[in-house]
Amino acid sequence: MAAKVDTAAIALAIQAEIERQQAAVDYDSMSSEELNAAVMHLTERLEKAKEALAKKLKPEVVPLVAPSASGGNFPELPWGVGNQVDAEKIRAYLEKTMQERIMVIDGAMGTTVQQYKFSEEDFRGDRWKGIEQELKGNNDLLVFTQPDTIRDIHKRYFMAGADMCETNTFSGTTIAQADYKMEHIVYEMNKLASELAVDAAKEVTQMEPHRPRLVCGAIGPTNRTLSISPSVEDPGFRNCTWDEVVKAYKEQVAGLMDGGCHILLVETIFDTLNAKAALFAIDEYFEESGCPRLPIIISGTIVDMSGRTLSGQTTEAFYISMAHSKPLCIGLNCALGANQMLPFMQAMANAAECFVHSYPNAGLPNAMGGYDQLPSEFAQEVKQFAELGLVNMLGGCCGTTPEHIDALDKMLAKEKFKPHVRTVKPREMRLSGLEPLVVDKQLGFMNIGERCNIAGSAKYKKLILNGDYDKGLEIARAQAESGAQVIDVNMDEGLLDGEYAMNKFLNMLIPEPDISKLPICVDSSKFHIAEAGLKCCQGKCILNSISLKEGEADFIKKAKIVKRYGAAVVIMAFDEVGQAATLEDKIRICKRAYDIITGPQVEFPPEDVIFDPNILTIATGLEEHNNYGLDFIEATKYITENLPYAKVSGGVSNLSFGFRGLTDLRESMHAVFLYHAIKNGMQMGIVNAGAMPIYSEIPQPMRDYIEEVVLNHSADGNHVERLLQFAEEEKEKKAAGGAGAKKENKQEWREKPVKERLTYSLVKGISEFVDTDVEEARQLFDTPLEVIEGPLMDGMNVVGDLFGAGKMFLPQVIKSARVMKKAVSYLLPFLEAEKARAAAEREAQGLSAQVIDTNKGTVVMATVKGDVHDIGKNIVGVVLGCNNFKVIDCGVMQPCHAIIQACKDSNADILGLSGLITPSLDEMVTVAKEMERQGYKIPILIGGATTSKMYAAVKVAPQYSGVAMHVLDASRAVGVCTTLLNADKREEFIEDVNEQYAEMREDFYAGLASRKFKTLEQARGMALQVDWKANIPPTPKMLGTKTYSDFPLEELLPYIDWNPFFQVWQLRGKYPNRGYPKIFQDETVGEEAKKLFDDAMELIKDVVKNKTLKAKAIVGIWPANSVGDDIEVYSSDGTSTQGVFHTLRQQEEREDTTYLAMSDFIAPKSSGIKDYVGAFVVSAGFGCEDVCAELRRQNDDYKGIMMEAIADRFAEAFAELLHAKMRTELWGYAPDEKLDVDDMLKVKYDGIRPAPGYPTQPDHTEKPFMWKLLNAEAETGITLTDSHAMLPAASVSAVVFANKCSTYFQAGKLCKDQITDYAKRKGQTIEEAEKWLGPYLAYDPNEA
Question: Of 321, 920, 1179, 1283, which residue is the catalytic one?
Answer without folding.
Answer: 920
